[in-house]
Amino acid sequence: MFTESKLRRDFLKGAGTGLAGTALAATVGQGTAAASTPEPKPTSFNVRAFGAAGDGKSLDTMAVNKAITVAAAAGGGTVQFPAGSYLCRSIRLMSNVDLYFDQGSTVIAADPSAPGEIDCYDLAEPTNWPDYQDYGHCHWHNSLFWGEEIHDIAILGPGLIWGKGLSKGYGPGPVAEHPGVGNKAIALKNCHNVILRDFAILHGGHFGILATGVDNLTIDNLRVDTNRDGMDVDCCRNVRISNCYVNSPWDDGICLKSCYGLGWAKPTEFVTIANCYVSGCFVEGTLLDGTYKRFDGKEHIPHTGRIKFGTESNGGFRNITISNCVFEGCQGLALESVDGALLEDITITNISMRDIISAPIFLRLGARMRGPANTPVGTLKRVVISNLVCSNCVPGLGSIIAGIPGHSIEDVTISHVQIYHQGGGTKEEAALEPKEMEKAYPEPTQFGHMPSHGFYVRHAQGIRFDDVEIVAAKPDLRPAFVLDDVRDADFFRIRVPREPDTPVFALRNVENLAIHMCKSVPDTELPKAEKAVL
C-alpha cells in the first residue's frame, strides 16, 4: 500500500523531472530555431550605397532607381537620402517602399536630357482623352517622381525637392510636350495608401503634386513654394490635407479636381483640408527661406494662390470639409462645377483672408462641358460657409454666387462672415448687368466689375445669409446685395453701410424673400418681386 506521504513524494519527483524536461526541450528548441533562422533582411537602403554621388553635378537617377528596386524586391523598406544634392530625372516609385529625405538633402530635377541619353525623363504615356483636360493632367510618367498602380508608399522629409529643370507647361523654358522633358515634381495615378509628409517643394513645374485616382491619401506638413499649381488632388477618395504652407503666385495653391484623365468620371470625395496657409504674393522661394519678399509690381503676377474646386469637374466633388485655413495676397475660395459634375455636401469654416485680389467667395455652376458629348449640366448644392473674415479685399467684384438659366445653385448657407473691402464703387457700376458667360472658363473676373459690393446672387434657390457684415473703406454707391432670378432667400442680421440714395438690396425676378433684423432695412417678406430695391 502507498502511504499518503509516499504519493506526495513521487508526485513532486515526477513534476520536477517534467519541468526540467520541458525546460531542456525549450532550450534545445530555441537553439534549433536560432540555428535555422535566416539573416534579417535590411529595411533601410542608402542611395549612396548604390552609387549616388549627391554632389549636385553627377546624375544620380540610376542609382536612386536601383535602390528603390532592391528595396521592393526585399519586400519593402525605406530608401534614404543623406545630406547632399542629388541630380535626377525620372524616379520610379514602387509599392511598399518609402523615401526619406534627411535634413540637408535636396533632390534636384535635372535639365531635360539630350536625345538618345539613357538617363532621361520617362516619356509621357499615351492617352485616349487629350481633349478633356490640359496636357499636364493627361500624363504622369514625365515627372521627377512618379508612381502608377502602386500602394503603401510614403515620401517623408525634412529635405527638399527642387524642380529646377521641370517645365511649367507654358512660357519660356523646356516645352512639356517634347520627349525627355519633365513636367511635374510628384505624379501619382491609381494608387492607394499614400503619405506625403514633412518635406518641401521649390519650383515644382506644372504641378508640385498631381495625385489622380489616389485613395487613402495623406498630405501633411508640406512647404510648397512654386511657379504654378502647388498640389492638385484629382479623382481621389479619402484624402487628408493638413498643416501645409503653399505659395503659388501663378496658379492655384490647393486645388481639388475631377478630370477625365482616367477615362471615366470619378468624383473627388471624402476630403478634409485643415490648418493650411495659401498665398500668391511672395517671390518664389521666399516662403521657404523665411524672407517673404513681395513682388515689386514691375511685372504682371496673377497672385492666384487660392483653395479651389475645379476647373476640371467631370466627376464632381462631394462630402468635403475645409477648416482653419488662411489666405494671403491671393484669390478667394472658388467652388466650380462647369463640366457636368455634381458639387454637393461641402462645409467650409474658420477661414481668415487678407489682401484678396478677387471675389472672397465664388460659387459657379456653368456649362463649359469639356467632356464626353451629351453630358448634362451639373449641380451645385448644399454648401455651408461660416466663420469667415476677409480684410482689404479689392472693391470691383464682391462675392459671387452664379448659376445659369434653367440650372440654379441650391441650398447655400453663409453665416458669421465679415468682409472689409476698399470701396469706391460707382452708380454706373451699380447699373451693370453681367453677361451670362455659361460656356466661359470660370473665374470671378469673367463678368467684369459687378453691380454689387457685397454679394451678387443669380440663378439660385434656397439661399440663406445669417450674421453677415460688409464694410467699405470708401463710400460705395452699389447695393450690397443684388439678387437676380432667386427663389427662397432668407437674410437675417445683415449689417452693411448705407449711402444716400443707394439701396441695400436690388431685386429682379425674386420669389419668397425674407429679411429680418437687418440694419437699415425694415423686416420684409416678399412673395414676389419683378424689380425692386430695398
Walk me through what this model shows.
With 534 residues, this protein is mainly beta. The protein contains three helices and 34 strands. The chain has helices at 4-36, 61-73, 427-430, and strands at 44-46, 55-59, 77-81, 84-88, 91-92, 97-101, 105-109, 143-148, 151-156, 160-162, 184-189, 192-197, 200-202, 207-212, 215-220, 223-225, 229-234, 237-242, 245-247, 254-258, 268-274, 277-279, 307-313, 317-328, 333-337, 342-354, 361-365, 379-393, 399-402, 409-423, 455-474, 481-495, 505-516, 524-533. It has a 34-stranded mixed sheet that branches. The radius of gyration is 30 Å and the shape is elongated. Residues 1-34 have low confidence and may be disordered.
Tell me the helix content.
under 10%
* Helix/sheet category: mainly beta
The whole-number mean of residue pLDDT values reads 92
Computed over alpha carbons, the radius of gyration is 30 Å
Per the principal axes of the C-alpha atoms, what is the gross shape? elongated
Major sheet description: 34 strands, mixed
Distance between the termini: 116 Å
Strand tally: 34
What proportion strand?
35-45%
- Quickly count the helices: 3
Unreliable stretches (pLDDT < 50, length at least 5) are 1-34
